[in-house]
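Table 4 source record.
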Amino acid sequence: MKPIKQSSLTSSQAGLLFLVTYMLLFVAQLVVTLVCEGDLMLHLTGVLNGVVMTSAVLIGTRVMGAPVRSVFGSKPRPHVAHLGLAAALTLFAVLFSLPIMQGIGQLFSLLGYNPPSPYADYYSSIPKMLLALLTMALLPAIGEEILVRGSLFGGLRAKGTVFAGVFSALVFALMHGGPTQFFHQLLLGLLFAFLYHMTGSLIVSIVAHFVNNVIAILHDFLLYQFAPHDFVYPVWAFVLMAVVGFVGLVLILFFYMRRVWKKSPEAADGGESAPKISERLQVVLNHRGEYVPYDRQAPLGFGWVAGIFMIVVWLVNTITGWIS
């Protein structure tokens, strides 16, 4: 079977496109911050996240000579089962990482790090919550997936799937502010990259990202509406969430990857002895690799620059809280 080139963007081009897009986004957010305030600023910021990232990546991809449709993967129309897989994995990932994120937040609060939250009364009514599902859940999910997974991860796969997944997940985590959310966003970044790679459809990772955002919005809305102002989850609830989330993630991933292995040519060939776990994992990771130009000598260039830039942004945001 002739390999299908998923994207003609090199890793360096993907890194350059990320930098340009992020700078455009920063300028747009700065303008909104200067001319708006309150709920209007929050809504417009969410809209800008989606619109600027989506338009910049699609236009930039075309200008660099790659087909726009390449951003959405080799199989843009996902299977319904893959959408269910994305939703289930995201739910368990949130259950697993939320207690850890809260624990990290408590640790930093003891160290004197208490960044103000601009969303204190954002979910004070149902209309605000419904609007947030559009401006803070759907549009950012589309824009961030197109930028980080469709463009950056897609271009970096020329250096290898694992490298691209980890690198793009780190950038994704650094994009989301200070240290309290870092582990949560890193886990989600790895999960979204895994889903995009395995299913060949960016729509699947967009759905997963949207589900995560919806969970966050509904969680904050319900707490605001029904919980006391100083409400804190009991320790047993955190432990239960973490255990359920971890077990759910492991079981779903185990059975899904087992099914992928059984359908692979390597499994069909049989053999006298069962392959090592590392060999099976490599087959699974390369499951959709037939459309990726695996050239490990491809220059990274601006990819490294993008990573270093995001580290600087993350440090500035952690220290000053100026950049979000």
